[in-house]
Design brief:
It is built from 23 helices and 11 strands. With 531 residues, it is of the alpha/beta class. It has 4 domains: 170 residues, 3-Layer(aba) Sandwich (Rossmann fold); 61 residues, Helicase, Ruva Protein, domain 3, CATH 1.10.8; 122 residues, Zinc Finger, Delta Prime, domain 3 (Up-down Bundle); 103 residues, GMP Synthetase, Chain A, domain 3 (2-Layer Sandwich), CATH 3.30.300. The strands form 3 sheets. A 5-stranded parallel sheet has the order 2-3-4-1-5, with helices on one face. A 4-stranded mixed sheet has the order 8-9-10-11, with helices on one face. The termini are far apart.
Length: 531
């Protein structure tokens, strides 16, 4: 009968365990020195090797020909434990045997000496599922078991264990396996099984597995069932990473404040039997990816997607501000909580999109901050929103000529006057929001404009070297454009005595920042009624 890959390739020695060297090295040294504890606790996320290490340890403590701390897997005891013929090693599922009577039976049975092996080993999986009475019944035996008994407890939720249990065990924490280690193991298994696995496909499976080797092997098993040539596209289809066009479409509707289109898409999804809670969860994951792209310079290691989808995410993320993304995530989190309460799921989802697509309806702090950010951008760049008046059409009896509405004229490019740049401190503060190290080095500089060239005056040779870095130049130009609305040529000019520009004072609590921004916008003749 066919066996799943994760069962076929379960580690048989400590050296086969991937990514848990801090655990296996300690256990091997204890076995070599014959300094074994009476109770072990293995904790960590699913698929990281807890049960596998427990089974290897149960064989190692009983092996007749221990090989450098590893079981030989050849002696009668090792083969008997693997086949289940030796009953001195007992594996108990605490999820289904969690009563006090089950633990009392175990405690009474532990008093009998082993029949064939050296130790009676009890492996209690998912031990956090035991009842309070079962834990209390186990305490005394776990603290002072007979000389011939070893306990190995395994759990994914160690915080649910009583402190009295934790203090009686030698604890080992299994960490999530690194994606590269998982990919290497997948390539090894694929080679032994006789099918081709692309490197990109192995890396994608490793990301999807989220640190669990069992999940990775299970997904590889699914892919190999469809084709002996496993590609990244095949992995994407099997794992359900494709078919997310509706997420990008809904995100565009939110960005463009297109409420009608968003509701139409939701209606189509509802008619196609799409679960609204699942849709909300997918949108949260989608905007989480956009948040990562806006916050991290190399996001590919933190996002599970194909290379083509990553480019699509990056393009969409650039059309959002980080404040807007955080606001949307907050609304979606609240909506997901409401959906779990059993409310009308379709109506709750539609209400969320109406709020997101109509900013004036949302009076939350995050929504106000988003609108403030829009006003700030308008003030900095000088962008003017021209709103055309609605002209009534004349009746048939009136013979009045109607002039065509004048089209809005794009503002002329701004030019900076010669002289010292007064808003240079604001530029540094803006730079501080996305490149703090560079901003910190530029607080003692000042800028002078001459013939359209911005000369950055300083007395630091290190700063010139920093400016040669392409990322630093891009960040500085971005901050300069956000404040002045211009894209000027920049040069560094070394001077003897740079200005000592202090950091700006914080805005007092009594000041209303929104009112201040509105007054500044009106003073500059900017129509902000659409914001």
């Amino acid at each position: 009968m066919y066996r799943a890959l994760y069962r076929t390739w379960r580690p048989q020695t400590f050296s086969d365990v991937v990514g848990q060297q801090h655990v296996t090295n300690t256990l091997v040294n204890e076995l070599k020195a014959n300094k074994l504890a009476h109770a072990y606790l293995f904790t960590g996320s699913r698929g990281t090797g807890k049960t596998s290490c427990a089974k290897i340890l149960s064989k190692a403590v009983n092996c007749e020909n221990l090989q450098d701390g590893n079981p030989c897997n050849e002696c009668e005891v090792c083969r008997g434990i693997d086949s289940g013929a030796i009953l001195d090693v007992v594996e108990i599922d605490a999820a289904s045997n969690n009563g006090v009577d089950n633990i009392r039976d175990l405690r009474d049975e532990a008093n009998y000496t082993p029949v064939r092996a050296r130790y009676r080993v009890y492996i209690i999986d998912e031990v956090h599922m035991l009842s309070v009475g079962a834990f209390n019944a186990l305490l005394k035996t776990l603290e002072e078991p007979p000389e011939h008994v070893k306990f190995i407890l395994a759990t994914t939720e160690v915080h649910k264990l009583p402190a009295t249990i934790l203090s009686r065990c030698q604890r080992f924490d299994f960490k999530r396996i690194e994606p590269q280690d998982i990919a290497d193991r997948l390539n090894f298994v694929a080679e032994r099984e006789g099918f081709a696995l692309e490197n990109e496909a192995a890396s994608l499976i490793a990301k999807i597995a989220d640190g669990g080797m069992r999940d990775a092997l299970s997904l590889l098993d699914q892919c190999a069932s469809q084709s002996k040539n496993v590609t990244a596209d095949l992995v994407s289809n099997v794992a359900g990473l494709t078919g997310h066009d509706h997420l990008f479409l809904l995100a565009d509707c939110i960005k463009n404040n297109d409420c009608a289109k968003a509701l139409s898409v939701i209606n189509d999804l509802h008619n196609a039997s799409c679960d609204m809670e699942r849709l909300c969860t997918q949108l949260i994951d989608h905007y989480r990816n956009l948040m990562i792209i806006r916050s991290v310079k190399q996001p590919e290691g933190l996002i599970v997607c194909t290379a083509a989808e990553l480019k699509q995410l990056e393009a969409q993320a650039m059309s959002y501000t980080l404040e807007h993304i955080m606001h949307i995530l907050g609304v979606l989190e609240v909506t997901a909580g409401n959906l779990r309460k059993g409310l009308n799921r379709r109506v709750e989802t539609e209400m969320a999109f109406v709020r997101l697509c109509t900013p004036n309806l949302d009076s939350s702090v995050d929504a106000l901050l988003k609108r403030v950010a829009a006003v700030e951008t308008a003030v900095r760049t000088g962008a003017v929103a021209v709103q055309q008046p609605v002209t009534a059409q004349p009746s048939a009896e009136e013979n009045i000529p109607v002039k065509a509405a004048a089209q809005p004229v794009a503002p002329a490019p701004k030019t900076l006057p010669d002289g010292e740049l007064g808003c240079w401190t604001d530029v540094i503060q803006e730079l501080k929001t996305f490149n703090l190290p560079l901003a910190s080095m530029m607080f003692n500089t000042y800028a002078v404009v001459k013939d359209g060239v911005v000369n950055i005056c300083h007395n630091s040779a290190f700063l010139v070297g920093k400016f040669k870095d392409e990322e630093s130049r891009k960040d500085l130009k971005k901050a300069f454009y956000n404040i002045t609305g211009t894209d000027c040529l920049m040069k560094f000019k070394k001077v003897a005595e740079p200005a000592n520009i202090p950091e700006p004072e914080p805005i007092p609590h009594e000041t209303d920042p929104l009112a201040d921004l509105l007054s500044r916008a009106q003073a500059n003749g900017i129509d902000i009624s659409s914001n």
